[in-house]
Design a protein that fits this description.
The protein is α/β, with parallel strands linked by helices. It contains 6 helices and 6 strands. Helix content is 28%, strand content 18%. A 6-stranded mixed beta sheet has the order 2-5-1-6-3-4. Helix 4 runs parallel beside helix 5 (116-127). 28% of the residues are buried.
């Protein structure tokens, strides 16, 4: 007996039981990411395009890339943060590279170890089968990279953790 695609999706929990009805519309999205502007920008991007997840301190309005679409999710401090944005993106795109802003080791915002949020990034990236490492980039070089022409999307969050900016390079969708 041949099992239909709809039945497979239903058994995997992707579709509700009602979707097995012959008159039910096909599922439109198989990702938890629902934001229409983000989906549209990702749909226009391709291999090698970049996505910046900017924390609440990032100067996104003055460092926006010339081709980057800006999506503001910064409602109030902490809502929406970088971690849930990364989690949503990882369900929609493959990641080839992940770059963070190198933290200061002296001065008022100095740290003696990696920011705690980086551990969350590493965990989520590993779960998404990302095989690379977070690559720190010096602050002003980071601004330059995040404002370059290959950045397709900048997502402004209200993340309150310092050094939480994350620049992702979109990878290749593996065949199969």
């Amino acid at each position: 007996m041949e099992v239909s695609r709809r039945e497979l999706l239903r058994s995997a929990g992707v579709l509700p039981a009602a979707a097995l009805s012959p008159t039910a519309p096909a599922a439109m999205l198989r990702t938890r990411l629902l934001h229409p502007e983000i989906l549209a920008a990702l749909g226009r991007a391709g291999h090698g395009s970049k996505v910046l997840i900017a924390d609440g301190n990032y100067p996104f309005s003055t460092t926006l890339g010339p081709r980057a679409e800006l999506v503001s999710l910064n409602l109030m401090p902490g809502v929406v943060g970088c971690v849930p944005v990364l989690e949503a993106l990882l369900g929609a795109i493959p990641v080839e590279a992940a770059e963070v802003m190198q933290y200061a080791t002296s001065g008022p915002y100095a740290l003696s170890a990696d920011p705690p949020i980086w551990a969350e990034y590493r965990r989520l990236l590993k779960e998404a089968e990302f095989e690379g490492e977070l690559q720190p980039i010096e602050r002003f070089a980071y601004y330059e990279a995040a404002g370059a022409g290959d950045v397709a999307l900048t997502i402004a969050t209200a993340e309150t953790a310092i050094y939480a900016n994350l620049l992702l390079t979109i990878g290749v969708v593996k065949p199969g």
